[in-house]
């Protein structure tokens, strides 16, 4: 990551533009916005280029009609979607985050695995269980990233993958232990009926491992997994059972591993990319609804936002109702921070075929510091 030599904002790799300072014969990185401003000056353009967070002109006459009809803005209204000019990535790895990861992988993964294995021993819902586990892994992984204030994208990604993989392997191993411990008493009871003396627990364990080695060539957990794969996964529906076979069982297990690991990756990486305030060493708040407006008035509101008349735009909003179709505005900010820019997001709101609300992001814009407080005050006054 580079730092723009002009505006001092961070620049992600691949987004920098290099310029040469003739006085010192050195090359300096600048962001694309500053590069546009320099180019405009060189061409004699007296007007400065629009800031990166500005909303583009919405003069398209189809915009209001499309929104009023409940159609997507994606093809009719083009708002600039810019990355917030706040710190949302860092190469530092806080010590607290390392401890959080150790605790989560060492304690959280086995606990999640034990819960799924315990419930799955009695009833296992194909597809649904891995999706639920992936959701839990993603949620915990994201919380851990936020608690540890980790903003290193690569480390957060690797952590999410590792957490998901450890959780799934914990689930499989605990499932193996549950099944094994349920088989041993049956073997002891059966031996008491057909043998001169009942097996001891140690003898039953030894015989079970010998049977696994004979069937798969491996004992213990690996032998159990191979035996289960050879037998195939049996599914039941409405008192009917059918076996999907060995190959499909292995493919399904790979699907489970991928889904759970992906859940951890998305949760951790998504949290690490959230805006962060360096001044107060804290994350921005989650998106908070500022208010909404009916579709017919959306174009007027967006023009006010484009002109920087934020308080007037806020007065048009209804903070209590969500009209459909309509436009809803959301805020993310570091509360009462005079140095960071709040983030204003506009989302188209409409109902899908089932009557549920459907949200589509239209634009993202940075506001002047503390403007979120002014906009909320304007709504309360209105």
Brief write-up:
50% of the residues lie in helices and 15% in strands.
Q: Which structural traits does this protein have?
A:
382 residues; alpha+beta; two-stranded antiparallel ribbon; 12 strands; elongated
Write the layout of secondary structure elements.
Layout (H helix, E strand, L loop, with lengths): L1 E2 L6 E2 L5 E5 L4 E5 L1 H11 L19 H7 L26 H28 L5 H21 L4 H42 L6 H16 L3 H12 L2 E4 L2 E4 L1 H28 L3 E2 L4 E2 L4 E7 L3 H10 L2 H6 L10 E7 L10 E9 L5 E10 L4 H11 L1
Helix pairs in contact: 3-4, 3-5, 4-5, 4-8, 5-6, 5-8, 6-7, 7-8
Mean pLDDT: 81
Number of helices: 11
Point out poorly predicted stretches. Answer: 45-85
Task: State the distance separating the first and last CA atoms.
Answer: 44 Å
- Backbone shape: elongated
**What Rg is obtained from the alpha carbons, in whole angstroms?**
29 Å
Structural class: alpha+beta
Strand content: 15-25%
Helix content: 40-55%
The SSE order reads EEEEHHHHHHHEEHEEEHHEEEH
Largest sheet descriptor: 4 strands, antiparallel
**How many DSSP E strands?**
12
Strand order of the largest sheet: 9-10-11-12
Task: Write up this protein.
- This protein has 382 residues and is an alpha+beta fold.
- Helix content is 50%, strand content 15%.
- The protein has eleven helices and twelve strands.
- The strands form five sheets. The protein has a four-stranded antiparallel sheet with strand order 9-10-11-12, covered by helices on one side.
- Helix 4 (128-148) packs parallel to helix 8 (245-272) and helix 6 (201-216) crosses helix 7.
- Residues 45-85 have low confidence and may be disordered.
